[in-house]
Amino acid sequence: MKAIITVVGGDKVGIIAKVSAYLAEKSINIVDITQTILSGNFVMMMMVDFEKATIDIDGARKDLTEACHNLGVEINLMSEKVFTEMHRI
Question: What average pLDDT does the segment 20-41 reach?
Answer without folding.
Answer: 95
